[in-house]
Structures are given as structure tokens and as C-alpha cells.
Amino acid sequence: MKRILLGLFMVTCAMNLQAQENENDDFNRWKARFRLISVSPSESATIGTIGGDVEISSAFVPELDFTYFFTKNWAVELILATTKHDVNTIGSDLTAVGGATNSEVDLGSVWLLPPTLSLQYHFDGAKFKPYVGAGLNYTFFYSVDAGNAIQDVDYDNSFGFSFQAGIDYELNDKWFLNLDAKYLLLNTDVTVDASNLAPGLSIPAEVDINPFVVGIGFGYNF
């Protein structure tokens, strides 16, 4: 709840800035960007019962975002992208179910949808226009494929913070190039149903995904 209130506070502050500043409306209110992004998790986990750590694959996908400017410098951005990641444990102790002391457990794959709303400050510039931002994301986990090793995996949806830096390079009044980097503080509580390995075996885990997202693309002012 505190994170939701923080997000609402950030948006309210941006709206107040619009009312406080007396600027001409000679700037584009909207930007739309299309990027190709690399999503590289900086993962770690606390795994009950079998111990070990987690390994999550990287992903390369398209991303779409929309930015609305309250003033020439202050804006909010909403990004939309979804990624698929393969997941497995490493260094797990499976001796209780007849396995090795240092094993990997295939946990299949999962799709992530983390819509992220950021408050941004855009610096003035003729062609190069850098910006920084911070915001909130809410991550949905869906289309879970548990693979062949275990029965099922359940991921809890969760809120997280995001931090951002990027730069736009204006080609003309309408089109521009973009380079963007984000770091998302993203975690989830996971429950692994391993009852196929031992009756009633349920493995809890707290997983930090914390992906670093780098994107390059182009955009349009309107």
C-alpha cells in the first residue's frame, strides 16, 4: 500500500508542477517510442527445503512506451513489454528424494508482464536530450510451464521500484532516436509443487529477479 501511495504522490507532484509553471504550449505533449530491449536478471533466491540458488535466463523482446509531458521538462512514462524466462535452481540438495547434494532442478519457464510508470525529468538540449526517471512497476507472472521435473510452480504478482536514465536524439521535429536503461527492483514469492518427487513436498522460495533493461529504438513526437 505504501508503494501505491508513493506512486500516486509522484503523479500528483507532476500535475502540480504543470499548474505552477507558466510556460508556452510550444512543445509536444506526447512521445511514443519503440525499442528492442535486453532484459538481464540479477537474480538471487532463498529456497526452503532443498536450498541452493536460482538461475533465470535473459530475454530480448520489443517494447512500446508512451510519455506525456506536463511541462517541457517533467513527464510521466508508461512502458509495455512482456518477456519469457527459463528458470532453474542451482546447488540444491536433493538427497532426501534420492538425488545429489549439488543438483539443478528445472523449473520450466514463466512469462513476465511488468507495466512500469515512471516520473521523468528531461534536460534541455538542441539535439541530444537526456533524461532520468524513477517509478513503480507491478509485475504479472503468467503462462507458467513447470517443465518435466516438478508438478507445478506458483509465482505471486508483486510491486517494485524502477530507476531509469536515457537520451533522445532529435532527427527532426517529429522523429528521434532513443537509448534507454532501467533497473527494476522486482521480487516474488514462489511455491514449487514437487509432490511428484515426494508425497506432499512443497518448496517455498523468495526470489529477487532485479532485471537490468537496456533498449535502443526510435520515437515519434506528437
UniProtKB/TrEMBL annotation:
- Identify the stretch annotated as signal peptide in this record: 1-19
Which spans of this chain does the record mark as coiled coil? none
Keyword presence, Signal: yes
Entry annotated with the keyword NADP: no
Tell me the InterPro entries matching this sequence.
OMP/PagP_B-barrel, OMPW
Recorded hits in Gene3D superfamilies, A to Z, give: 2.40.160.20
PANTHER family, sorted? OUTER MEMBRANE PROTEIN W, PTHR36920
Q: What is this protein called?
A: OmpW family protein
